[in-house]
Amino acid sequence: MSAAVDPARPPRRGRAREVWSQLLRRPRAVFGLTIIAIMVFAAVFAPLIMPQDPFAQNFDGLDLMGAPLPPGGDYLLGSDLLGRDLFSRLILGTRTSLIIGVLANGIAVLLGAGVGITAGYFGGWTAAILMRFTDLMMAFPALLLAIVLAAIFQPSLLIVALVIAMVNWVQMSRVIYTETRSLAEREFIQVQRAIGSGTFRILLRHLLPHLLSSIIVFGTLGISTTVLLEATLSYLGVGVQPPIPSWGNIIYENQTYFSTAPWLVFFPGLLIVLLALAFNLVGDALRDILDPTLKGRH
Amino acid sequence: MTAGRDTGQGGRRPVLEIRDLGVQVATEEGAKTVLDGLSFDLAPGETLALAGESGSGKSMTALAIMGLLPKPMARISGGSIRLDGQELTGLDETAYRRIRAARVAMIFQEPMTSLNPLMTVERQLCEVLLEHGVCARGAAPARALALLRDVRLTEPERRLRQYPHELSGGMRQRVMIAMALACDPEILIADEPTTALDVTVQAEILDLIRALQDEHGTAVLMITHDMGVVAEMADRVIVLREGREVEAAPVRDLFAAPRTDYARTLLDAVPRLGSAPARPAAADAAAARMVEVEDLCVRFGISGGLLNRTVAHVHAVEGVSFHLRQGETLALVGESGCGKSTIGKALLGLVPWEGTIRVAGRPLRGLSRKAMRPVLRDIQMVFQDPGASLDARMSVGEQVVEPMRVHGLATGSELSDRAEWLFRRVGLSPDMLQRYPHEFSGGQRQRVCIARALSLSPKVIVADESVSALDVSVQAQVLDLLQELQEEDGLSYLFISHDMAVIEQVADRVMVMRLGQVVEEGTRDQVLRDPRHAYTRRLLAAVPVPDPTRGRAPLPPAEDLAEASPIFPVGCAPERLSLTDLAQGHRVAMPSI
């Protein structure tokens, strides 16, 4: 049962390595990691992989009626309304979507969890102010807020990510707030106060590990909404500027042709689902590995 | 084994016959047998107690009889349950519904969770009556009222219109009993019916169950871990351990001469009020005062109204003064809500308070949390529920040394040496340091908590109901450990408990609290052997006697103790009690509240 390590505290690096090796022992986590790895690879080496120029509007990319071509032939996944190669555009779009999905969602998770934990642990006036602010953000139409913010700042990938994060952190902070409130009342947190632990120590070392499963679940769920929100913003002209592709704006550009050219919506949609699924699988596995009460199962 | 059993009922036809009952629960490691080959008969009007410690399978028996085993994890693996000749195992849900409540009724440990919080008492009672067609719709309310009268609920008309949260714990359990008896069942199964209640309320409920049983001739299957309750209620006892019957005997025989070792150890571990040995020479009066408390008040605001302002205060602790000397154990006794735990928390600065507290001579008034730190090295706390007070995500080894890390007392290998030393000290093997709390039993967890409290080498330990959640045999071991530590290190304990029998074993001095104030204090023998306050007497009278030959007299109604609440509107405060000195240190509030 017990390994021969320092009984008080296993060394940090050993712990990280152990988590990693446990992760590799779970097939579902490996599947998720593989998808993420492929996407990262595609994003980094996009120019080398793309079979065609994603911006070129090819005359032979449309049929005689001017309609886009279905998958097959020169155009692996078909072509879009302007005769551009869908496969190449999706590969280049991986850059935008991955950055938005990870960056925007990451900021939203950090902000939401931070606000939630702070409000939940301190309660009183701190909670009143922070949570009323959260309510305000919730009541404010997210899209309108995003448009206003995006209009003020010069559109760029970073700004888009920030804007999306500003809209998305709210749900996370609500969930974490409620959970922290009930956790903070629990006896083991009281014990820490009785011992004399500082506030930061209690928050990071004792509360955070118990919130991890909610953070992971909501964090991974947030990835797909984030990618889609970016698409909405692009559609309204305040997101990523065309002709730069992202999975989201490919869906939006082509949604009116869903009945005649379904592949234009299906493939980017599939990629968004895969991305969310991949993070979800890895997140679930991480949650189980980090929970000692589940040790020995699976 | 079964053949030779004397039922003590003169061959009356049993209403319930159980033969070779087995229950299995699915676990990760495959099916686990939690109940194996249990057989017994239950005669009308008889009370049979199933006694045992946690994990003995006693609750599984009750659930199996009621057809309420949690599906699909648990199932009956063999044997038969016959109610008046009718086989119950393998009955489908529809058929079972006609049995439950109508013929076999059950009351549970926690009445709050068993009642529907959104329905009035009247609606819940009527629902049971109508469901089983006991009476016509028009007659139901009148019948419900009669039932509440039956269970001796005060102001039954008003109670009918109330919701469960408006009732006290004892009243809720009375409502549960009324519901259980609504259809006049042949068998009443009571699963730890008084464990969650205060001792005086427990005595009242037990008296009630006995009275109702005499009136209705119901057979009672009493499931309990408390040998005092067994002695008081049962005609016969079956002692269970790990799903197997250890001993079955008429109650007097079992208590007089247990045949098996396990039953004997179980009985020996039960603390008996009035039998505790004299305490070793109590700490001499010259010993240093480790804790001094003067005029301590703790109030919690209740906000309400349109502007959400504080409209009333709960006067949890009101003008309490005491001191605790080195090497001494002071016990705080009282029923739930009397403020005893709040005092413990105030000493560690966990709740805001007013008055004067000095720990090891250091005044605590106005100290910030940071400034409190050195004080916390002198005073530590062990909480009630060891499961809840350990962090499930951290190995116990880390948790035990966490205080030393917080206070910067040791680093690196010193920490692990110290962890090993602490573990040996509380009787645990250092091999277990790597494990997580869920891998320990309740008693071991409490040892871990004690080790953690000891890691700062404190001079005072506040033990807040520290043994209440443990099985009796484990309870005795933990009490011994606390005693040992006191003798070796001269620790002082503030021992907070509701259990008079436990207090008698550990306390040098006793303080009895009611509604945030001290009503009686003195040495252990002064307070427990010669109680002067009506409330103290009532508390002592309510303790179940683990001796079936010396039945406890029914609890007298609490006429001289006014119903009271510690909640007062802003600007008002409870009347302060003044204590009269009777004899060396024996002080009593006069007149009785």
Automatic annotation (TrEMBL), chain A:
<keyword id="KW-1133">Transmembrane helix</keyword>
<dbReference type="GO" id="GO:0015833">
    <property type="term" value="P:peptide transport"/>
</dbReference>
<keyword id="KW-0571">Peptide transport</keyword>
<dbReference type="InterPro" id="IPR050366">
    <property type="entry name" value="BP-dependent_transpt_permease"/>
</dbReference>
<protein>
    <submittedName>
        <fullName>ABC transporter permease</fullName>
    </submittedName>
</protein>
<dbReference type="GO" id="GO:0055085">
    <property type="term" value="P:transmembrane transport"/>
</dbReference>
<keyword id="KW-0813">Transport</keyword>
<feature type="transmembrane region" description="Helical">
    <location>
        <begin position="207"/>
        <end position="229"/>
    </location>
</feature>
<keyword id="KW-0472">Membrane</keyword>
<feature type="transmembrane region" description="Helical">
    <location>
        <begin position="263"/>
        <end position="282"/>
    </location>
</feature>
<dbReference type="InterPro" id="IPR025966">
    <property type="entry name" value="OppC_N"/>
</dbReference>
<dbReference type="Pfam" id="PF12911">
    <property type="entry name" value="OppC_N"/>
</dbReference>
<feature type="transmembrane region" description="Helical">
    <location>
        <begin position="98"/>
        <end position="122"/>
    </location>
</feature>
<feature type="transmembrane region" description="Helical">
    <location>
        <begin position="29"/>
        <end position="49"/>
    </location>
</feature>
<dbReference type="GO" id="GO:0015031">
    <property type="term" value="P:protein transport"/>
</dbReference>
<dbReference type="Pfam" id="PF00528">
    <property type="entry name" value="BPD_transp_1"/>
</dbReference>
<keyword id="KW-1003">Cell membrane</keyword>
<dbReference type="InterPro" id="IPR000515">
    <property type="entry name" value="MetI-like"/>
</dbReference>
<keyword id="KW-0653">Protein transport</keyword>
<keyword id="KW-0812">Transmembrane</keyword>
<dbReference type="GO" id="GO:0005886">
    <property type="term" value="C:plasma membrane"/>
</dbReference>
<dbReference type="InterPro" id="IPR035906">
    <property type="entry name" value="MetI-like_sf"/>
</dbReference>
Automatic annotation (TrEMBL), chain B:
<dbReference type="GO" id="GO:0055085">
    <property type="term" value="P:transmembrane transport"/>
</dbReference>
<dbReference type="InterPro" id="IPR050388">
    <property type="entry name" value="ABC_Ni/Peptide_Import"/>
</dbReference>
<dbReference type="Pfam" id="PF08352">
    <property type="entry name" value="oligo_HPY"/>
</dbReference>
<keyword id="KW-1003">Cell membrane</keyword>
<keyword id="KW-0547">Nucleotide-binding</keyword>
<dbReference type="InterPro" id="IPR003593">
    <property type="entry name" value="AAA+_ATPase"/>
</dbReference>
<dbReference type="GO" id="GO:0005886">
    <property type="term" value="C:plasma membrane"/>
</dbReference>
<dbReference type="InterPro" id="IPR003439">
    <property type="entry name" value="ABC_transporter-like_ATP-bd"/>
</dbReference>
<dbReference type="InterPro" id="IPR013563">
    <property type="entry name" value="Oligopep_ABC_C"/>
</dbReference>
<dbReference type="InterPro" id="IPR017871">
    <property type="entry name" value="ABC_transporter-like_CS"/>
</dbReference>
<comment type="similarity">
    <text>Belongs to the ABC transporter superfamily.</text>
</comment>
<keyword id="KW-0472">Membrane</keyword>
<dbReference type="GO" id="GO:0015833">
    <property type="term" value="P:peptide transport"/>
</dbReference>
<protein>
    <submittedName>
        <fullName>ABC transporter ATP-binding protein</fullName>
    </submittedName>
</protein>
<feature type="domain" description="ABC transporter">
    <location>
        <begin position="16"/>
        <end position="267"/>
    </location>
</feature>
<dbReference type="GO" id="GO:0016887">
    <property type="term" value="F:ATP hydrolysis activity"/>
</dbReference>
<dbReference type="Pfam" id="PF00005">
    <property type="entry name" value="ABC_tran"/>
</dbReference>
<feature type="domain" description="ABC transporter">
    <location>
        <begin position="291"/>
        <end position="540"/>
    </location>
</feature>
<keyword id="KW-0067">ATP-binding</keyword>
<dbReference type="InterPro" id="IPR027417">
    <property type="entry name" value="P-loop_NTPase"/>
</dbReference>
<keyword id="KW-0813">Transport</keyword>
<dbReference type="GO" id="GO:0005524">
    <property type="term" value="F:ATP binding"/>
</dbReference>
